Amino acid sequence: MKLRVDLLPDSHYPDVALVIDVLRATTTAVALLERGAGGLLLTRTAEDALGVRAVRPEVLLAGERGGLTIPGFDLGNSPVEVGEAAVAGRQVVMTTTNGTGAAWRAAQSARHVVLAALINAHAVARHALAVASEEIAIVCAGTDGRVGLDDVYAAGVIAEYLLALGDFQVDDGARIALTMRRGGGDPGEALRGSGHGATLEKLGLGADVDFAAQLSTSRLIPTLVPGDDVPGGALRFLAG
Fold it and tell me: What InterPro entries does the record point to (predicted)?
């Protein structure tokens, strides 16, 4: 079995793709489904999200640009904010600066797409091993087209779990992520020390960084579920 880590999204995933935007999209996605959201519809643009609401006015809109809530949206991209929101039973349409675009790219080719974060790291590792037939790719969303230490560290955590569960042929990206994990300190230290973590701290969103640094506190696995009833341009993820 092959294990690869892409430090930025690629365009060819033949088997399983675990998409990571630990600060904060994939962490928030897990939090939304944990709070009982009836599903997530990920869109690449805010305009696409508004288009979904035009045909499904009952949905909630969640998203950010530059770390801040998009004007007119119900929620931002904060896992802490989710804990105070009434999302149970509601579909949530989500669009973010980096994470939703990375998920869209992976979905163009992968047979299985899962949203991964530190909070569900162990669960997604076990799930990936159970469904993979030839390769597990851990896809780091990055930040504004640049490699993000936070995502690479989280990829290293998941890669470490996978290596404890099975035998893999690892690529250089996986070796980089594992080196980052082993030398990067504890999750809180690594995330706070990343450029993205520092930016969120400056925006007053340090609580989100602390939330995202929790390790394997959730068994929830947001899984891509295609279907003809999904609005154009959106990806539907359900709790697995």
Answer: ComB-like, ComB-like_sf
